[in-house]
Specification:
Blueprint: H1 21-28, E1 37-44, H2 47-57, E2 64-71, E3 74-75, E4 81-82, E5 89-96, H3 108-124, E6 129-131, E7 135-140, E8 143-155, E9 163-171, H4 197-217, H5 227-234, E10 241-245, E11 251-259, E12 265-268, E13 274-277, E14 281-284, H6 285-290
Parallel strand pairs: 1-2
Antiparallel strand pairs: 2-5, 3-4, 5-9, 6-7, 7-8, 8-9, 10-11, 10-14, 11-12, 12-13
Helix pairs in contact: 3-4, 3-5
Length: 291
């Protein structure tokens, strides 16, 4: 059998070239940057799990960036599975040790969302928004679709200072027949101007560096750092009627009106009460009903 006769494998799609790890390190791991090391691995279960384990063993320093060309057991919030074909997306985790009060760490997924939205919008040329607290949305055929997500997990070396792993997953070149669910989307399906993963990744990580540096310089204060204003500007949840499915199984319905000092979503109920929600599965009611 000649090479031309062989069936295509998951690494042979010419429209999905590999990331250039050397070029990425040269561009992102610099003396003035937040990032201290960068590694690209072909396949792993979960970059978040791998980096968290390294942090616990003390073999990963703050600023470490771990990227996978393929994830087989990627996870989102509520342990939802996140998988995609090889080289079809960006699957990246970073290790951070924020020197800010722990009560302000709740802003980290939102900070990562703001940074990712900014990077993707600038390079891909499509309008990406943030669904509280950690979903990335874009429009495909006039419908709101999820194209990515963010997962924040506390970790750290045993007996050492706490740290956090931020994981970012983005659907870049997934085709319609490759979507995990019908409500998912990708930059390709949104007719992005650029689906080259190298410049997309550089833009996201540089934006994350900028926002994280700004936030930590302000001791995590959402207003002094400008984070609350920026997040409110790109948050597709604010101003919408939502259903909040709470961890205890109860449900709260109302209008999402604000983000409080801790990054919680404030929901105004029909009874005129405003309640902050720190952990919930949010459904955009109007978009769901229209779709």
């Amino acid at each position: 059998m000649t090479p031309a006769d062989r069936p295509p494998g998951r690494w042979s799609d010419l429209e999905r070239p590999p990331l250039n790890a050397t070029a990425l390190r040269g561009a992102l791991v610099t003396p003035e940057a937040l990032w201290t090391s960068l590694e690209v691995t072909e396949v792993t279960g979960s970059t978040n799990a791998d980096l968290a384990e390294r942090a616990r063993r003390g073999t990963a320093a703050p600023g470490t960036v771990l990227i996978a060309e393929e994830q087989t057991h990627g996870r989102g919030r509520l342990d939802r599975q996140w998988s995609a074909p090889a080289r079809s997306g960006l699957f990246v985790s970073v290790l951070l040790r924020p020197e800010v009060p722990r009560e302000r760490w709740g802003w980290l997924p939102l900070l990562a969302g703001v940074a990712t939205v900014a990077g993707l919008t600038r390079v891909a040329g499509v309008g990406v928004t943030l669904k509280w607290p950690n979903d990335l949305l874009l429009e495909v055929g006039g419908e709101e679709r999820k194209c990515g997500g963010i997962l924040s997990e506390s970790t750290g070396e045993q007996g050492g200072p706490p740290a956090v792993v931020l994981g970012i997953g983005i659907n870049v070149s997934l085709r319609a027949d490759e979507l995990p669910v019908e409500t998912a989307g990708s930059l390709l399906l949104a007719e992005a101007e650029n689906t080259d993963r190298d410049p997309l990744l550089r833009a996201v990580l540089r934006s994350l560096d900028t926002w994280y540096t700004r936030w930590t310089a302000a001791s995590g204060a959402p207003d002094a750092s400008g984070l609350r204003e920026a997040c409110s500007a790109v948050c597709a949840t604010l101003g919408r009627t939502v259903r909040a499915q709470l961890p205890d199984g109860t449900e709260l319905r109302g209008e999402a009106v604000a983000l409080d000092d801790d990054g919680r979503l404030v929901i105004a109920t029909g009874e005129g009460v405003q309640l902050p929600v720190s952990a919930a599965d949010i459904v955009h009611v109007r978009s769901a009903e229209q779709g």
